[in-house]
């Protein structure tokens, strides 16, 4: 086998990706001829006379490119190529078979066992250099892909660490948000208030609560802040600081008298105050809907404001259901917006249900919302259930309706049972 004279344009520094070329041929003269050209082109070269010896070298050293004769004693070139491909490697190895065979079937067999290129003997130096250049391009792309994968893996590891830290913070944030609802149930004489709050994520934009309002009254509220996640939860925390406390110094819905007594402000004034506060003092793009009610524990009179929130429902003692309110505007959208109060009267055995739209807009597997009719069905089905057991039954029914426990929106509600 003779290597013909190469053109000068092929005499260039090889890329550093090809660290070692392995020559495998049982002819020492042929190896010497090929080695002279490869070293002239700047490659580090190793050589051996058999495929078995070549495999030992490949196991010990990172061979990037192999030039192997087809016909050799013992293991031939295709068999060597197949064995080489079976070796565990961190990177790709480019394999060129030297052959005097030109039959298509033989070429196909060589490709099947993993050969990348073929060169016929006698080897033309320019053609050999071109085949090696093709191999270098493949190795370069493979190297770039491995480097990108390495960077991607490192980035993913950093993101995982960051995600784990955020997840831990969100778990703590969920605990803090749940702590905004200090009591999930409280009795007021013969009446009882029960709360439900289940964010769809770690934290949510819903808030429910109650507060003693003096003069034998109790305040109830259900809030739904626009959006989801951390920013919405921060708004609910701010609202909790304005509505949850029983002290008039910390609750916008209360005011103190000169004699130390506590009185409830009209709900419409409270919501108007919240609207001004959000538009004038809080720099946020969020707005919220609210149902704020003030119930007299003696007379059963309920004065309420519906500001964009779902309609409150009264389930009478005989099981019939009434929806109250006229809709109204959300809070924090329009300066100077007015909010009108409505009045309802409760009789012993009646109960009031205030909820966010996470319940009425709960979707079925066919994407059909529960709606007010569906809510009526749930209320009638569970008319005999009281307190926290009522909400447990409601959640069970919602999960059955949705076909999943993973709700797309926060679920929150207030149940006030008038004794």
Annotate the secondary structure layout:
Blueprint: E1 21-24, H1 28-40, E2 45-48, H2 51-60, E3 65-69, H3 77-85, E4 94-99, H4 104-112, E5 117-120, H5 125-179, E6 185-188, E7 191-198, E8 206-212, E9 217-225, H6 230-243, E10 254-256, E11 262-264, H7 267-280, E12 288-296, E13 301-307, E14 313-315, E15 321-323, E16 341-345, E17 351-355, H8 357-360, H9 371-381, H10 387-402, E18 411-417
Helix pairs in contact: 2-3
Task: Quickly describe the structure.
This protein has helices at 28-40, 51-60, 77-85, 104-112, 125-179, 230-243, 267-280, 357-360, 371-381, 387-402; strands at 21-24, 45-48, 65-69, 94-99, 117-120, 185-188, 191-198, 206-212, 217-225, 254-256, 262-264, 288-296, 301-307, 313-315, 321-323, 341-345, 351-355, 411-417. It has 419 residues and is of the alpha+beta class. It folds into two domains: 8-148, Rossmann fold (3-Layer(aba) Sandwich); 180-417, PPM-type phosphatase domain (Phosphatase 2c, domain 1, 4-Layer Sandwich).
Describe it.
- There is one protein chain.
- This protein has 419 residues and is of the alpha+beta class.
- It folds into two domains: 8-148, Rossmann fold, CATH 3.40.50; 180-417, 4-Layer Sandwich (Phosphatase 2c, domain 1), CATH 3.60.40.10.
- The protein is built from ten helices and 18 strands.
- It has helices at 28-40, 51-60, 77-85, 104-112, 125-179, 230-243, 267-280, 357-360, 371-381, 387-402, and strands at 21-24, 45-48, 65-69, 94-99, 117-120, 185-188, 191-198, 206-212, 217-225, 254-256, 262-264, 288-296, 301-307, 313-315, 321-323, 341-345, 351-355, 411-417.
- The protein is rod-shaped, with a radius of gyration of 39 Å.
